[in-house]
Structure formats: C-alpha cells, structure tokens
Design a protein that fits this description.
422 residues, Serine Threonine Protein Phosphatase 5, Tetratricopeptide repeat, 27 strands, 19% helix, globular, four-stranded antiparallel beta sheet, Neuraminidase, alpha+beta, single chain
C-alpha cells in the first residue's frame, strides 16, 4: 500500500465512523457493529483488495519476527473496513507488546479518539514513549505546493536534492539554504517524483516516478546538470509503483516497487529490470538502504525490514529485538553499522536509530531521536550528511487525493529538519 493509498483509506475510515462513537465500544456486539456499518456506508471500493492484503498478512504471521507489525497492520486494515471491534482487539494485542506503536497519530485509528478504551491505550503508550525533541530547522522552501517525497545529499556537488510529487520536479538546496530548480516542472513531462539518489561513481542522479492516477511508473536518470539522460519502465502490463532506490558502486540501481510488492535490480547497460528473490511475500516495500560494503541490502515494508545478501541471494527478516519494531518505515539509511529510519506508519511518526549486531541480523539497541514534535507531522524520507540526519518534516502528503492537491490554500512552507546522529 502506497502512502497515497494509505491516506485515502484513512479518510474513508473517518467518514465511516461519523456518528458511531456515541455507542460505547465495549457494549457493541459484532452483529450490531455490522448493522451500524451497513446503515452508514457500504464497504469501500478497495474492500476486496484490503481483504486480500489481510489474508496475506495473516498467512505470513507465523514466520514473522515482529508480531506487533502484523497486528498493527491488521488493526488499521480492519478499521478501514469498518470492523471497529476487531480493529480494537488487534490494537490492544499490539500495544501490549510495548514496541513503540502510537495510535494517536494514525489517520485511520484516531477516529476512535474520545472512547475511554482508546484514550487509555494512548495514555499508556505516551507514558512508555514520551516526546523526544532534538531536531532543529535546517531549510525552508518557499514553494508551498511541492509535496516533497525524496531527499538525498550529493557529496560531489555538496547539495541536497528534493523531489516533488505535486510539481513533478526536483529542486536542489545548498548547505546555506539556497533553493533552485535542478529539474524544472514541465520540462520533461515527468510523473510525480519519489525516491532520489546520486550515483557515487559518476555524479549522475537517479529518481523514481509514479502516478497512481495514470497507473504508470518510471525510473529516471539525469546528468549532473539535471538534463534527462533516460527514462525506463518494465515490459508488460503489470502495475508498478516505483518508490525508493539505492545505487551500487557498479552503477546498478535497486528499487522498491510498492504496487507489485517487489524489489527490482536495474541493469543500466542492458536497461533491464530483474526481480530480486526474497524469502517471504513483501507488503508495500518502501524504504531501502545499502551497507557500506555494497553487498548488504535492507528493504523496509509494512511488517519490518528484510536483509538481503547480494552475493548469495539469501534473505531474512532483521529481528527488531524486545520492545522494538522495524515496521512502517518510509525512509531507510545505513550509517556506521546502524539503520536510520523515518518510521511514519506506526501511528505517530518518529525518527529512530536501530543499532545492529555485527552480522546485521538483529537490533541490539533502539534510540529514538525525534518523537511527537512539530518536526514529525508528516515526515517521509531523509539524507545523511556527515553525522547529521536531514529529513522532510512536513511533506503534506496528506493533502493529496491521488496525484492532485485537494486544497492549495491549506499548504504551508516545506520544512527540512536536522538532528545529530549518535
């Protein structure tokens, strides 16, 4: 499920729940719950798809190392379908694991706000995971309607690149905060631009693009001046949603496809896309990181993080350890043996560092850098520059309906925050 699909579902859940909170949750029976739902609104248009996703995750649960991630996914999905009692049951089971999920920030589950059961759960979560405020404002872009998704740092040029979903362009930002177009809007007739990465070998720039409205996706390649060198899409009629990407030292691009639930290796010489073999079914793969050794790949999806050995093809889920979760990560980055994450699909978003064991198979310590502040409203991705982590603080992705901004007058300036890494 892509970020845009997620927000669409959450909005539907809010409508579905209007007038429903007046009845105490604990007092409702399943039959009454179904009657209420039928009386308010029919099932959402994507109900068949959502039920298929639920069935897939339930089938995966026995082999997952983080049960909490699956429980939270199932809870939000059930609420999207209007199955409030089941959603609340699953949420209670998830929060009892004390892994960091915070339903108060969930666009779908917050419709339960005001019920004693839900509010008591939130109080308990906030006691275990208090506010953490360490980030500072780094940059501001005056264009309010960018709706940025990808952020990257180019050491060769000493600039940041920021991709735009709404304006379908890429801007660059100097360390002093000067903002200018790297790829102007309209010039290359781009789709909404998502993940972006410079090529460490030659200074060119790769970016993913994806239009949900048009059901199309392309991998883009620009030279160091922003001129389009190539645009590539897989063969066939299957739906694709290219999200984030990394570039290996040999020029190979590896990208996540949130629509087809796959990870692709792109050969820049042959211009071919080859799916990467993973040990389990992925659920909307999103963030992706490459270790400094250029051989360990980490892929984030709804349910956790998968580690792939690019030498032998073996893969396994990274164990998050007790009272921790690797679920719901958007931006994912490698830094000195740790994973830096923008974790925006666990309710209230947070920026976290997951310190890994020597073999990268498990998390040995979780450090939360920013939690429940004005810099974690709608964060998406980030970039590492030295020992600092820069991240998009307010992507405003919730303002989109498909590829379009619902109300431009409600948008604010885009803020990029920075926090020091441990």
């Amino acid at each position: 499920m892509s970020p845009l699909q997620s927000f669409s579902r959450c909005f539907y859940s809010l409508i579905l729940f209007v007038g429903f909170l007046a009845v105490p949750i604990a007092a409702r029976s399943q039959d009454k719950d179904k009657e209420q739902i039928k009386g308010v609104l029919a099932e959402p248009d994507d109900a068949v798809e959502v039920r298929a996703e639920i069935a897939s995750v339930e089938k995966l649960m026995p082999q997952l190392v983080d049960r909490g991630g699956a429980l939270y996914f199932l809870s939000t999905s059930r609420q999207h379908l209007g199955e409030t009692l089941e959603a609340l049951r699953l949420l209670k089971e998830c929060l009892a694991l004390r892994e960091g999920f915070d339903p108060s920030g969930s666009p779908s589950l917050r419709v339960l706000k005001g019920s004693k059961e839900f509010d008591d759960l939130v109080v308990s979560v906030h006691r275990d995971y208090p506010v953490v405020a360490q980030a500072q404002l780094a940059f501001v872009t005056e264009e309010k309607d960018l709706v940025p998704e990808g952020l990257a740092y180019d050491a060769r040029q000493n600039v940041f690149y920021l991709s735009s979903l709404n304006r379908r362009k890429i801007v660059k930002i100097t360390p002093e905060g000067r903002v200018s177009d790297f790829v102007p809007a309209g010039r290359d007739h781009l789709l909404p631009v998502l993940g972006i990465r410079p090529d460490p070998a030659d200074g060119t720039v790769w970016a993913n693009s994806w239009s949900e409205d048009a059901a199309r996706s392309e991998l883009l390649h620009f030279d160091a001046s922003g001129k389009l060198r190539g645009r590539y899409a897989p063969q066939g009629t299957a739906k694709h949603g290219f999200n984030d990407l990394v570039v290996r030292k040999n020029g190979e691009v590896i990208l996540t496809d949130s629509a087809s639930n796959q990870v692709f290796q792109f050969d820049p010489a042959a211009h071919t896309f080859t799916p990467l073999s993973i040990h389990r079914v992925l659920s909307a793969p999103n963030g992706i990181a490459l270790a400094d050794d250029d051989h360990q790949l980490f892929v984030a999806d709804d349910l956790g993080v998968v580690r792939v050995d690019l030498d032998n093809g073996n893969s396994s889920d990274v164990n998050p350890g007790p009272r921790s979760t690797l679920a719901g990560i958007d931006g994912l980055y490698w830094h000195k043996g740790s994973l830096i994450a923008v974790q925006n699909a666990i309710g209230s978003a947070r920026i976290a560092v997951f310190h890994l064991s020597k073999d990268s198979s498990r998390v040995t310590q979780t450090t939360v850098l920013e939690n429940r502040t004005s810099f974690t409203i709608t964060p998406t991705t980030g970039a590492i520059h030295g020992n600092d982590f820069y991240f998009i603080a307010n992507s405003q992705i919730d303002s989109l309906n498909g590829d379009k901004v619902m109300d431009v007058t409600k948008l604010g300036v885009v803020r990029i925050a920075v926090v020091r890494l441990p």
